[in-house]
Fold:
Amino acid sequence: MKPIIMIRHNIFTSIFFVLLLSFYTNVNAQTIIASDNFNRADEIPFAVGSNWQNPFSGGSANLIGNQVTGNSGEALYYWQGSGSFSNSSQYAKARVVNSSGQVGLILLGGSGHALVVAWNGGTLYIYRYSGGSYQGNLTTVSSSIQNGDIIEAVLDNGTVYAKINGTTVTSVANTTGITTGTPGFEFYQGGAVFDDWEAGTPFSNTYSISGNITEGGLGLSGVLVTASGGFSGNATTNANGDYTISGVTSGTTSITITPTLSGHTMNPLSSFIAGPVNANITNQDFTSTLNPNNILTITSTHGSVTKNPDQATYSYGTNVTLTATADVGYHFLGWSGDASGTTNPLVVTMNGDKNIKANFFDLNTIAFDDFDRTNESPLLTNGNWRNIYGWGNVNLIGNQVAGSSGEALYYWQGSGTFNNARQFARARVVNANGQVGLMLLGGPNQALNISWNS
Structure:
């Protein structure tokens, strides 16, 4: 009887092995194109020129004891060995040995450029380099890694995903203009250690969120539907009021769906998808109501604004002319809130409730920014502002500006002419915890900086 028992045991073991192998294959259905286990003689610094290359000179890493550790500065390496990568769909992953310090992965790495996904001190950073210079964060979120974690960066059809042990931490659209390159890895200074790097084509297992928006029983077109939280994306309703947001990766959680159309109120205002998402999400429907009476709120100090026609409420689509008049000793410098620019008089179309501020300043003031506008992360530098160096940056969040990374210096390049011998800048401090300052005579690669730091 013992041989029979042994035969049954062997059959069971074989079946279990087949099932386990099948499960492992399905979960890890990624095509590995390149890998490096670093099992070779030490390289101090990490060797480039064969499989690996730096996007630009600067920082370095070391290969010590079959593992890679950060050494100095920001060290970026992209793969240039054998294998061909897709520019629209690629991944990199590695095993964290020591999470003390900054460690990350790169996508679309090449000469002078890279998308970086990195963890440091409980924060996840997704940012970019272009032209050999830091160009700011795409996003930052709270996220911690532990020794032994598998970190992963994925690019899939225009969206960048950051993952820990296979679970998506966050995602953000690739709006950088970087469209070609290969995966790699990143360190900032010393402390962190990682091993077992691999890269290839990710398992494409994405789903969609869809629904319909109606008003008066008919489909409503032109509604912007935005997904936020665990996934970022958007879509606009078609003539039938239908929308579909694509690219939601398997396992994504905590997604908020919010429809917006000026002059309309949605019911509900938003919907929440707890997840994890493992199938297409449908029936995310909303009902819209046209706002019949729209309120125009005007605020100003050191001047006045007249409205024509001057009414308590306005029907949808009504044009209202605003005329700003400064008090003695002041001048009008522009509109903010739901209007912008310096046009005076200004014609406003009432397609929803509006809050508009007329900004008057003393005659010595040439330029201003009250930051009363949509969030900018980082602060945009293609309009009134320019970043001197292009590496440190700030974020505009909740109509206020906060430091984000590095030393961020911005100078005004909007309207107005300044005297090079006599000029001033001033601002109201909201939170004094950290360094904040002003600068004079700012320009490309130059500035006089006056700063306070607690």
User: Anything to note?
Assistant: Confidence is low (pLDDT under 50) at residues 1-28. The chain has four domains: 26-201, 206-290, 296-362, 385-453.
